[in-house]
Amino acid sequence: MQGSLNIQLSGATEALMLLPQRAAWIESSRSLLIADAHFGKTAHFRKAGIPVPQAMFSKDLDRLSELIVQLKPDEILFLGDFFHDQANNEWNHLIDFRQQFLECRWIVIPGNHDKPMLRHLHSQGWLHNNNQLQRCGMTLSHDELPDAGAGISGHVHPGTVLRGKGRQSLRLPCFVVKRNEWCILPAFGSFTGLDIVETNASTRVFPLTEQEVLSFVN
Q1: Where do the structural domains in the chain lie, given as residue ranges?
Q2: Residues 6 or more apart from 205 whose CB is under 8 A from it?
């Protein structure tokens, strides 16, 4: 896929494709991996009187639609924080959106923000009743599991700072690879902050723009 980057986690039986759309892809299982979508967050803030534009939510759905059309996944694995808080009008939009792509399964590993939505996720058949699952020798979870070997998670909304001449700098979301065996995905949701990651000998970051995943920066 254009702008993507393949990495091989130690212990995994399949390469992981990092996508500039803030997602990852496992080819052999045809699995699309998304972390921290935080659907419903813009409506949650608008309900509290904070004027957040709904266009952010629409933009995220457009990006998800693009990935589904291009990759034709058998399953979409949401690695936690699928929905930001309690059900609101964006939940209803999600239900309508889902009807367009019934050919692929949706599986949600619940994260901390999903707790108010567990009943709704279960009613749709999306809820995975465990905090992890396995694909191609990799453990998939919301939080990093340091002793699990090869794996993929989300939760921290990783970012990095690229510095240019003088005081020029640019903050970008990024993928993080630790110990060459664990990958942390960037937050899929547009309305999320960045937790800047410090790199070291065992931690690499792969910044991404809207068009490309960049080679790692130490």
Answers
A1: 5-207
A2: 158, 160, 174, 175, 176, 177, 197, 199, 216, 217
For strand 151-153 and strand 195-196, is the pairing parallel, antiparallel, or unpaired? unpaired
14-50 residue pLDDT tens: 999 999 999 999 999 999 999 999 998 765 545 555 4
Average pLDDT, the chain: 90
CATH fold, domain 5-207, is Purple Acid Phosphatase; chain A, domain 2 (3.60.21)
Alpha helices, DSSP H only, in the chain? 41-47, 55-71, 89-98, 118-123
CA dihedral 9, 14, 19, 24 (to 10 degrees): -90
- For residue range 138-185, what is the model confidence (pLDDT) as tens digits? 999 999 998 999 999 999 999 999 877 667 778 999 999 999 999 999
Cα 198 to Cα 172: distance, rounded to the nearest angstrom: 13
Contact 155, 35 (CB under 8 A): yes
Q: With contact defined as beta carbons under 8 Å apart, do 162 and 196 qualify?
A: no
pTM > 0.85:
yes
| Count of other CB atoms within 10 angstroms of residue 100 | 11
CA distances from residue 103 to 74, 82, 112, 128, 178 in whole angstroms, order as listed = 7, 20, 28, 18, 34
Query: Burial, 3: exposed, middle or buried (Cβ in 10 Å; 0-12, 13-18, 19+)?
Result: middle
